[in-house]
Write a structure and sequence with these properties.
Its main location: cytoplasm. Helices cover 55% and strands 7% of the residues. The chain is mainly α and 507 residues long. The chain has two domains: 2-195, Fumarase C, Chain B, domain 1 (Orthogonal Bundle); 204-307 and 321-405 and 414-505, Fumarase/aspartase (Central domain) (Fumarase C, Chain A, domain 2, Up-down Bundle), CATH 1.20.200. A hairpin with a 2-residue loop joins strand 6 and strand 7. It is elongated.
Length: 507
Amino acid sequence: MITLTGETLNFAQLKRILYEKEKVKASDESMEKVIKSRQSVEKIVNDGKVVYGITTGFGKFSDVFIQKKDVETLQLNLIHSHACGLGDPFPESVSRAMLLLRANALLKGFSGVRPVVIERLLELINKQVHPVIPQKGSLGASGDLAPLSHLALVLIGEGEVFYKGNRQPALDVLTKEQIFPIRLTAKEGLALINGTQAMTAMGVVGYMEAEMLVYQSELIASVTLEGLNGIIDAFDDDVHQARGYQEQIDVAKRIRGYLTDSRLVTRQGEVRVQDAYSLRCIPQVHGASWQALEYVKDKLKIEMNAATDNPLIFDDGEKVISGGNFHGQPIALAMDFMTIAIAEIGNISERRIERLVNPQLNDLPPFLSPEPGLQSGAMIMQYAAASLVSENKTFAHPASVDSIPSSANQEDHVSMGTIASRHAYEVINNVRRVLAVEAICAMQAVEYRGIEKMATATKAFFHQGRKIVPTINKDRVFSKDMEAMATWLKRAKITIHSTKNQSLNLS
């Protein structure tokens, strides 16, 4: 059981909650802050004060005063009118993350909701009832209004949920699980939807997959180095210490660790004096992507524990301020950065694929074909990888440089952060498939060189990989192989305890 405080949620806990389905509860201290904040809202309503979103309309309607008798209707109308999501739903893991992050934000005690709202969010998490939330429709400022409205629908017994592998009406599942719908009161609808939890949830799920993918890319690149008799000298620690980037130093160290007992890699001058950049510059390119990912991780860690709704309530209600913490610009920029960083992992991987299949660039059979000419081998696998990296270049155009005014120009600058996070996830999935192609080609290449000469670490990867994709002894429908390898990479783990002690878990 993980205790949420609104302040301390981290990636290790997030992984346990999202993927191991660990249950959550609210800390007593945070709930006390929630109660005090709620008392402030009730006083505002009873005193008839004019406070945005509590006793006024929303957006351009912020100057319209709402009578006490209508505050509940205001919140219900807000959820109904703002549930304008479109397109396919977010992955279920992202929906679960949205529930978690919204509950954690409300527990900070600045939002003015009743404890029951948070209790219902935690019930949905603990009973694995996940709202169906369309991916499209958020501008990423004034909060992820449309996606979070679909989340809020479930709390009032409307909308749809994912439950035990099926998509079902929310009310049916709530009834079955004895989760009682709530009636939203003053401020609560606004507090649920005025936040960055859609882009942040998509971002944290994407980041965790991206992190594993880059680790996997280093191991796959190591197999490629063996398949091409790559020169290990380029990974010498002195080279990377001379430049000074720690991430670059670490990548080189991990690759040296993977190849420590390989008899397929060479020394400079044995086969050639130096390798092409896609081999020689792996630490520099991958290291730069790691730098970007560190930036992304830092911003996500802050946003996971941030108060992002509006208005915020301070000093027991003495200070209620309309601000702009719902603006997703910090996450939008981070997501664009992650998109570019992961796209580059795919770009350099595709160039290594080309070196594995192009007979003008190696001494292997053309296109790794068992019968060159009669059989095409991996020729079109490289085409597929090239298509994916080219598609990634369109996704890598920054979403955050765009803005469009909304709500009659009241909301005249927006972040597009949710679009940025979705694009990042598309790129992650594409790059996983590119790495799948590199893995298939690299495994084929080392078979020609001699599996017995492989390093211990890369040989372990090879034997596990061959359980997924058999050797190419004749042409077949390679689409199935590429997808099977990508699926395996998504679930396979490479555990890196440190750069000094790395271990493989490829089950």
